[in-house]
Amino acid sequence: MPIRLEVWGDYALFTRPEMKTERVTYDVMTPSAARGILEAIFWHPGLHWRVDRIHVLNPIRFDNIRRNEVDSIISTSKIRSMAEGRGDGGAIYASESIQQRSSTVLRDVRYVIDAHFELERGKLSPNDSAAKFQSIFMRRAAKGQCFHHPYFGTREFPVDFRLWAGSDEPVGFERRHRDLGYMLYDFDYRDPFHPKPLFFRAALDDGVMDVTSAEVRS
Question: Which residue ranges traverse the bilayer (predicted)?
């Protein structure tokens, strides 16, 4: 059963993994980021979200900002020592590990996510069903409820969301074909200790990225 969710925010950062030091965003929200928003609203171990299309409603605009990041955090041994009363009470983040880095981000973003979910029968209770999960998601999305607040790429850029109102098809911001190159699709978690990134050749057609027939490769 399809889900259609409208999401928007002031900024977004969907980091391109090939950029090492400075963070540079993809032109459009990735399917994995869209899945993360859906899971923030409703998640169940027997439910898997599948993103079908992402409608880009606002023109693609970029901004350059500077953000404070850290390259290291407190070690587990120090945390254990502090918990046992043997630590010095030092900061979690060392001041020398804080670095200011430039980021290329998207601004004034608005998307509509078309998605559906699939069920894994081995992780469902006898009372679980697709209709039940559909009803729960629709109710939570309509009320603005979520397990944790969704974000566009990083927690600094929160997402506002609502169910798409009306029966009209969302209208993309442009009427042409735009090749976006290779984009992160999602991660393969079959080996939970070594998740494998998956990519696909992304494109916008009339402002819509259709991933239903994407050829995914590692």
Answer: none
